[in-house]
Amino acid sequence: MDKSEHINRFGERHISIPRGQTNIPLTYEDELGMTREEVIEELDWSHDPRSESAHESHTQVARLPVITDELITHHAYVALSLSPDLGKRHIEIEVKNGQVYLDGFVPSRRNKRAAEYCVERLSGVADVFNRLNIN
Description:
This protein has 135 residues and is of the alpha+beta class. It has helices at 52-58, 69-82, 109-120; strands spanning 13-14, 25-29, 35-39, 91-96, 99-106, 127-134. The protein contains 3 helices and 6 strands.
């Protein structure tokens, strides 16, 4: 077999194979002498998630949801109200740029630590300033 001829999976053989050229028609001939032309087009795999080019061209930095100070304040009030140690205590909460300030009175050191723990584990909280006083 000549290197310029190639048989495809349908039993057709190439009459001519252009090298490195695209959009040029290939001519196929089957065993009965019937011919057909096919155009070779460049393949673009960037849409395929399995291709490397898809990861390179479509990779984005994950964006975390923005948590506002108002949302942190709301979550802090809910967390403190659901705490069995602090449920009925009046604690003032102020949030500035993710920093939470706790003000008010609690009956014990345990309650003071519990309030700080409830708030510091909330999403978006950068730091907690526990200014609670013990009665």
